[in-house]
Design brief:
This protein has a domain at about 330-360 and about 375-385 and about 455-470 and about 500-670. About 55% of the residues lie in helices and about 10% in strands. It contains 20 helices and 12 strands. The strands form 2 sheets. Strands 1, 2, 3, 4, 5, 6, 7, 8, 9 and 10 form a 10-stranded mixed beta sheet that branches.
Length: about 675
Amino acid sequence: MKKVGGWLIFALVLIFVGSFLAQMFNTSFYTVKVKRIKFDTNNGILSGLLYLPKGADSSDPRPTIITTHGYLNSAEMQDAAAIEMSRRGYVVLALDMYDHGHSVNKTQYDSAKAFFSFWPSSQYDAVQYMYNQDYVMKDENGNGIIAVAGHSMGGFSSTMAMVMDEQDYAKTGIRKIHAGLPMGADYSWTSYLGVTPDVAYAAYGPRTVGVVAAHYDEFFFDSAAEKTGNTVVFKDFISTPEGKAFLGNPSDPSEGVIYTLDNGGRRVIYEPWQTHPWNHFSFITTGHQISFYTKAFEGYTSPNQVNAGLGSENQIWILKEYSEFLALIGFFLLFIPLVMLLMKVPFFAKAKTERAPYVPEPATKNNKIVFWIFYAFSAAFPALFFPSLMNKDGAGITIIQVLSLVILGLGLLFGALLLSRARKEKGRSVKNVRNGMIFISLSSLLLFLTTTFRKNLFVQNKYFNQPTTNQIAFWALIVSEMILILMFVSYYLNKKQSNLTPKQYGFVTKWSSVLSSLLIAIVVVAIGYAILYFVDAIFVTDFRIWTWAVKTFESQNLLAAIKYAPFFFIFYYITGISINANTGSMKKGEGYYLSCISMVGGLVVFLALQYGLLFFTQRALVPNQALNPILLFALIPSLIVATFYTKKLYEETGNVYTGAFLNTILMTLILAANTTTYSGII
């Protein structure tokens, strides 16, 4: 108990020390007030983090930046620019677009139009609000000294905002937007709304506008690649006709050089040697933003902006990220000691069951060969078929269907042969062979049916309203079914020799133990999130590093998590059984290491090849996979944490349920809070 209490205290210290430091850097050592705001719009409710430097008010209005995130993200992803520019005395609003973060879209739309429901209006709706705030600077003619910026979809939204602002200028004579900086965004999607490059360039007018077009952006800046769908290749936007036209068609355009057009507008293209998600976690791109805003707001800064002249290399935002990472580590360390303490309570003690002996390691040479073949395949399968499963299409689906039918056929064939032989023996042999044949055949048939009717599963609609969660849920379901097949084959191959029982795999038949495990998981996750909400209220920070984040959420995110949780329980339950069966009898360090490899090893290799080839050959391993590999940046570490929970809680409770319930509730909440939720689908 003393050791458990020590771990709990250590976790809490990491959380609160990390959060305190994160707040200190986020507020630039308390020279900036940071608060979460919400405001009503014609389309719903927008939320954001307002960075208000000391002294910025009606008597000293400041140039203002509205910066927003990309698809699936939230306002916190714009920390770098928000911290650095507010530190230099500018007002910054880091915005949650509709259907993201804490913003709510109150419009209704068909599922087919969901993608166009949030980004076209988010930025310009925020501009209307910020323009009316007395701490936001206007010039003598009433023009707003406001810059709009955004990454990816946020860049699209920024482009749309400038176009709409120019349309309003034709009616009112006032431009509310002074400058714009789309990052990781071209005109691929705005073109569907009539905003082609030519339309956008004309609408930019006399504004100062820049573009961050990374050389290894997975999505944009190469129209020829976009036509083929193979977009994960090297890009050089400044050399394309579209890029040159943006700059006014200079004879020999250069990256980072500001070009002045005939209408007085200024244009610049930045081309960092980065990928798409790298843009918002980069000293280089943050430096470009600092340089851009410094130039764009030249002549408008307040005399009280004493830090406005800080060089672009002078950055502290990364210290906030490291501090929140410290808190993130503390958050994940919290749950094991909480579970162990709760199991001291009589009712929750029922979650602990007598642990059967671990499944023994294979003893014979042949069994060892079979074990390692199964282990390697189970580690490789989630990655080998990742692109096909995420898209529900491609050769991978066909291979899985054929494989499932082959296993089904072999299961029936060998089962029949073994059954005829077993009938000559007495007792359990017949029953074991019959059961093995039934379970292997049924699990293979289930895999075949799931892949065959895949288009009817996790279809984006009013119920399943998180597009990328739909993808991950389908991937997890297929992985679960394949692992289930491997477990049945392994179990019935080794059962006779090793006298295995289901209990050795962690199965528990006492419903009181299962219920107690579920309630423990609910309670500890509730405690963890109560601490998170307390941190958010006091420090206005959360727990994160880059794209991996544990953040507060709205009711629509919670409802989505509840809907998806049963499917993720299948995944964590089956993988939990597999992990403990395969590694339980190994030495502790070796068991944890091999468990992690079996869970994410293939995915890590896939990511390394995908981006390694992109950097070294200018073309990714699977060049038509732009978004899906990015999802792995957060999914892989979550799966590693889940693996540790699975093994540790099995060691402590003797069954897989507590770990499976904890992973399901916690990881599904994390996933559902960090993605798009189309709450307006009808």
